[in-house]
User: What shape does this take?
Amino acid sequence: MFATYFLSRIRAHRRYRQTVRELAQYTDHQLRDVGITRFDIEAIARRQF
Assistant: This one.
C-alpha cells in the first residue's frame, strides 16, 4: 500500500514537472493566447496533479 502511494506521488510529480517544462517553452504571446502568464505556470501545473 505504501509503495503504491509512493509510486503514484512520483508519477504525479513527473507529470507536474513535464507540464511546467512544456508551458515554460511557450512564448509570452502564446501564453497570453491561452489566458495565462509565466507566473501562473507552476500554480496551474500544481492544480492539475
Q: What stands out?
A: The chain is about 80% helix and 0% strand. The chain has one domain: 2-48. The CA atoms of residues 16 and 22 lie 10 Å apart. The chain has a mean pLDDT of 94.
